[in-house]
Write a structure and sequence with these properties.
Blueprint: H1 3-23, H2 29-39, H3 46-57, H4 63-83, E1 93-94, E2 97-98, H5 100-104, H6 106-125, H7 131-145, H8 150-159, H9 167-177, H10 179-192, H11 197-224, H12 227-230, H13 236-239, H14 245-270, H15 277-288
Antiparallel strand pairs: 1-2
Helix pairs in contact: 1-4, 2-6, 3-4, 3-10, 3-15, 4-6, 4-10, 7-10, 8-9, 10-11, 11-14, 11-15, 14-15
């Protein structure tokens, strides 16, 4: 099945199940509104899509992937809410809409992010899989989303502002800040699908390279795109003097590095299956997207 058709079929099911996880909560009205505002703001849904695509590759039921994908998207969304705050990246536009703190105020935005983060673990706990898989998923998730992953990467990103990072240092930032949650989507799919150790190793290799490709493309789009195309403020990296792939490698060099990581990602997939069509198409989409 082609990626576009798969997304048209599966993402509405996934999104409805994710929204229901928040809508059923007995919580303050404004908190629920703030949480749903950012969850429903759209986005590429790449992270949950990875979970579902790996399950599809191994011809496994997609049902547990909806829950795991919802937990993943909740944590990704919380990270965006916090990232947009004045104390972080200080942005007032996300996915073409006012950022959460612009609409609901800083205090409620912080708390909505906190609520989505903690709810994500509750969703994982209630996923209908074996206890062994549940424990492994929670272990992988806390590593990917916390100090050893996304949060640690965010700290490295802040510490790297207004100073010149080496390529190795820049990759360390983004393997954690951006790549960790992308990688979890693929690892989680492999856990749910009972992939072998060899298959999981190859999928992790794919995840590593496609995670870096994702960030390199983001850096390129920040230079080449407009705010209207991106749905967020374009040119912020250069304005804030951040180390980026175009800044380190030139724009042409960044394009070359993007292609290199894409090629390595696809090569890793070939060792798992010649039929990994969806994962290949997701990789192609990541490097050719315009937002």
């Amino acid at each position: 099945m082609a990626l576009r058709e798969f997304m048209a079929q599966q993402l509405p099911i996934f999104e409805q199940k994710m929204y229901e996880q928040v809508e059923k909560l007995t919580i303050p009205k404004n908190l629920k509104a703030s949480m749903l505002y950012s969850l429903k703001a759209g986005g590429k849904r790449i992270r949950p899509l990875f979970v579902l695509a790996v399950l599809d590759l191994f011809k496994k039921p997609l049902a547990p992937g909806y829950d795991v994908g919802a937990a993943l998207e909740m944590t990704h969304t919380y990270s965006l809410i916090h990232d947009d705050l004045p104390s972080m990246d200080d942005d007032d536009l996300r996915r073409g809409k006012p950022t959460n703190h612009i609409v609901f105020g800083e205090a409620l935005a912080v708390l909505a992010g906190d609520a989505l983060n903690t709810l994500s673990f509750g969703v994982l706990v209630n996923t209908e899989v074996t206890a062994e898989k549940k424990v492994e998923l929670i272990q992988l998730f806390h590593q990917a989303s916390g100090a050893e992953g996304m949060v640690g990467g965010q700290v490295l990103d802040i510490e790297g502002e207004e100073k010149q990072l080496t390529l190795a240092e820049l990759e360390e930032v983004h393997v954690n800040k951006t790549g960790a949650l992308l990688r979890f989507g693929i690892e989680a799919g492999a856990v749910l699908a009972d992939a072998t150790a060899e298959e999981r190793a190859a999928l992790n290799e794919y995840a590593y390279h496609i995670g870096l490709a994702f960030q390199i493309k983001d850096d390129i789009l920040d230079v080449e795109g407009t705010s209207e195309e991106l749905g967020k403020t374009a040119g912020k990296d250069e304005a804030s003097d951040k180390s980026t792939y175009p800044a380190l490698l030139t724009l042409e060099g960044a394009h070359e590095k993007l292609q290199e990581h894409y090629n390595l990602a696809v090569a890793a997939l070939e060792t798992v299956s010649k039929e990994a069509t969806l994962l290949k198409e997701i990789a192609h989409y990541i490097v050719h997207r315009n937002k």
